[in-house]
């Protein structure tokens, strides 16, 4: 093969952003100066290795769209169930057995453990819009407050809620927003649930969500009031780790979700084979 001549070589260097000569002006990027580095914190013996395992994958697919790609493709191959509802969220949704909680209902679980609202925005088209649901129940925010994957202000989290709502509206899908659940310390007493997840910040986000839903006419699912104790924490009998509800907690959440879905869709949801 003929080696590239001088002129083609200059073109290739220009496309790559390489100065043609040592005396050429340096390339200037609008994002300069160099991107910041963040001091890594100790996430503990379980979350630390889990986070390290996630990092290489998130560099290629921050939304983790690959996790439900096959299930979504299989579902799209069949006609959409009437009044399908997608439950979008993090591990609290992921752990919820929707088929047992809502027998015969066309409810689809699209929860992914440890996810933050920015990731849900990235996968919203694949995991929600392309499944053609009548409504989407969005439960998210506790991982954002913890800062497990990225540091977000309340305003940035709220902007992600608004983005998901706008996408749903654009595609004639009814957005239903759920309050963030209350948290408490794990029964073992060895965790830092309250210190890392800041109950006051969770309550402020819930207050914003309630106002947002009222202003836009969306249904609001108040899981918080269903699970909270007189100290403003999740009732200890409903959780082992202080964050995720046990079956007894999900049993309290199910009728609250069902009532909001019925309000949003203007009547009872038709029964159909449910989907995991």
Shape: globular
The total number of structural domains is 1
What's the number of extended β-strand segments?
Answer: 5
Q: How confident is the prediction overall: mean pLDDT?
A: 87
CATH topology: Rossmann fold
Helical fraction: 40-55%
- Rg calculated over all Cα atoms: 23 Å
Proportion in β-strands: 5-15%
- Can you identify the CATH class? Alpha Beta
The main sheet orders its strands as 2-1-3-4-5
What does this entry show, briefly?
This protein has 276 residues and is α/β, with parallel strands linked by helices. 45% of the residues lie in helices and 8% in strands. It is built from twelve helices and five strands.
Explain this structure to me?
The structure is a single chain. The protein has 276 residues and is an alpha/beta fold. The chain has a single domain, classed as Rossmann fold (3-Layer(aba) Sandwich), CATH 3.40.50.1110. It is 45% helix and 8% strand. It has twelve helices and five strands. It has helices at 6-15, 44-60, 69-76, 91-94, 98-101, 117-127, 142-146, 154-170, 193-197, 199-216, 223-227, 247-265, and strands at residues 85-89, 107-111, 135-139, 174-178, 219-221. It has a five-stranded parallel sheet, with helices on both faces. Helix 8 (154-170) packs parallel to helix 10. The longest helix has 19 residues, at 247-265. The chain is globular and about 65 Å long. The model is unreliable at 1-6, 9-13 and 268-276 (pLDDT under 50).
